[in-house]
Design goal:
- The complex is a heterodimer of chains A (163) and B (105).
- Chain A is α/β, with parallel strands linked by helices and 163 residues long.
- Chain A has a single domain (4-126), classed as Beta Polymerase, domain 2, CATH 3.30.460.
- Chain A has helices at 4-14, 23-29, 47-60, 75-79, 105-108, 127-137, 140-159, and strands spanning 19-22, 38-43, 63-64, 83-87, 92-96, 112-117, 120-125.
- Chain A has a 7-stranded mixed β-sheet.
- With 105 residues, chain B is α+β, with helices and mostly antiparallel strands.
- Chain B is built from 2 helices and 3 strands, in the order βββαα.
- In chain B, strand 1 and strand 2 form a beta hairpin.
- Classes of the chains: A alpha/beta (163), B alpha+beta (105).
- Chains A and B meet through helix 1, helix 2, strand 6 and helix 7 of A and helix 1 and helix 2 of B.
């Protein structure tokens, strides 16, 4: 195992999945110096894309991480707004049908940046939207990273010469 | 005898006005002893002064966040940032495994 996040993202791209990177991996892509042990993705819930997500999860050997029976998510799970908390051959992966209070892939799309990762381009949630999502979630683990996210946003704006 | 130019003509100290006066030649005459140096002669203000340098940004913000780390991280590409964090996780996993701590799968 070398770069689990990178390899997981590569598999999703190779399978043609439409997804947005959210959570702390999105924050670090956007410049916040934080670490995390899981990868959070919001996928588009169209039938074709759900099939592509299933293909990617099969390649990664994904199973529910809170279920000792090794169950795998099906199309009906991925077509809904719920969160699939999975473990894969590469690490922990959360496949989210929506973010926060049911915010969909399509609704998040305007608040994304394209980030190049090798030969692929990823949709990554903006720092502004990540901060709003953390504020809305309001859990201690979300509030804990907010100072770093806000400071990163302020620093990016200062370097860009924006107020 | 030629008349003194505006640049070289000296006004008697007793006639100096209480406020600075700009002449057509871009010369400002200051009130007597306004500089505190005893110099009451002409001052060339035709060339604008460069703006005062901004104070350097702080290294730590009011929430205690180390901004020097953020600046360094922002110098990396997104790909470089991911590689850096993956490297940290590799090290952490190696330490966990050496110490029989259940690693992240």
């Amino acid at each position: 195992m070398s770069d689990p996040f990178r390899e997981t993202l590569d598999v999703f791209c190779e399978c043609g999945v439409e997804f947005i990177v959210v959570g702390n991996v999105a924050s670090l892509f956007q410049g916040a110096p934080i670490t995390t042990t899981d990868l959070d993705l919001v996928h588009r819930r169209t039938p074709g894309n759900v099939e592509r997500v299933l293909a990617a999860l099969a390649r990664l050997g994904a199973t529910y991480r809170n279920d000792p029976r090794g169950l795998t998510p099906g199309a009906s799970h991925l077509a809904g707004p719920g969160h699939q908390l999975l473990k894969t051959n590469l690490g922990l992966l959360d496949v989210l049908g929506s973010l926060g209070a049911g915010i969909t892939y399509e609704e998040l799309l305007p608040d994304t940046d394209l980030v190049r990762l090798g030969a692929n381009e990823l949709r990554v949630l903006t720092l502004e939207r990540l901060i709003r999502a953390k504020e809305a979630a309001g859990r201690p683990k979300d509030l804990a990273v907010l100072p770093t996210l806000r400071a990163t946003l302020a620093e990016k704006r200062r370097l860009a010469g924006k107020p | 005898m030629a008349r003194p130019s505006a640049r070289t003509r000296r006004r008697p100290a007793s006639r100096a006005s209480s406020t600075a006066r700009r002449t057509s030649a871009g010369v400002t005459r200051r009130p007597a002893d306004s500089s505190g140096t005893g110099y009451n002669g002409p001052v060339d203000t035709s060339t604008p002064r460069p703006p005062a340098p901004e104070p350097p940004p702080p290294d730590v913000d009011e929430a205690g966040v180390d901004l020097t780390v953020i600046r360094w991280f922002l110098e990396l590409t997104p790909e470089g940032r991911l590689a850096h964090v993956e490297g940290i996780l590799r090290t952490a996993r190696a330490i966990w495994e050496q110490n029989n701590v259940r690693p992240v799968p």
